[in-house]
């Protein structure tokens, strides 16, 4: 993490308020830490009270419980925010083959896609006041198909459309909206693949950089997209997959 944040000015986000959903573990947590390391006040949300209770002390990050499926809770959370400079829509789930059940499919879609819209709408006025930025977390499955996770695939594909629509809807109000698309990063969600030799090797062979990503690999791209260096970048998705999507599956 230190090498990544040292790439940027240490007070880059000083005085700014950054909200990161799905930030009590994995990618979201490291993104929250990245912004905090550059001076931001960070509000990190998660749905698990137990995880929040176990987070310990991180002075620049305030952890709060929020079920992004709960419309009333999201509305109340957004109304309580006096300022928002950056919104990272990081909450996401995958439920494997169970997603072929309609109820689970719809619930997964609600977390991964609808909630991004819900938070963006709720914080839109605060973002407009600050000339703020939204970064949605998409996926390599925004570009590929995986029949093992139909809802995850559909929701992450939808994130691209939502990102573009919001960018054009709110661009004249000074709000930039972009996305990042992680590939295979070592997280709890992907552990069933990277924890076995065949799975880890198969991904590494197809990836141009020859390795799995880490959660920290997502931090720099998010910091860039929220910074003045990306002032003329909106409606775009930055793929952070080590070249996996462009690899040749026949050679994997």
CATH superfamily membership: NAD(P)-binding Rossmann-like Domain
Q: Low-confidence parts lasting 5 or more residues at pLDDT below 50?
A: none
Assign an overall shape. globular
SSE order, as H and E? HEHEHEHEHEHEHHHE
- Helical segment count: 9
Highest CATH level, the class? Alpha Beta
The major pleated sheet works out as: 7 strands, parallel
Look at the structure and give the mean pLDDT: 94
Distance between the termini: 30 Å
Count of all domains: 1
- Count of DSSP strands: 7
Organism: Aureimonas frigidaquae
InterPro entries: NAD(P)-bd_dom_sf (IPR036291), Sc_DH/Rdtase_CS (IPR020904), SDR_fam (IPR002347)
Family: Belongs to the short-chain dehydrogenases/reductases (SDR) family.
GO molecular function: oxidoreductase activity, acting on the CH-OH group of donors, NAD or NADP as acceptor
Describe this structure in words.
This protein has nine helices and seven strands, in the order H-E-H-E-H-E-H-E-H-E-H-E-H-H-H-E. Strands 3-2-1-4-5-6-7 form a seven-stranded parallel sheet, with helices on both faces. Helices cover 40% and strands 14% of the residues. Helix 2 (26-37) crosses helix 9 and helix 4 (71-79) packs parallel to helix 5 (102-130). The protein has a single domain, classed as Rossmann fold, CATH 3.40.50. The two termini are 30 Å apart. This is 2-deoxy-D-gluconate 3-dehydrogenase. GO terms for molecular function: oxidoreductase activity, acting on the CH-OH group of donors, NAD or NADP as acceptor. Pfam families: adh_short_C2. Belongs to the short-chain dehydrogenases/reductases (SDR) family.
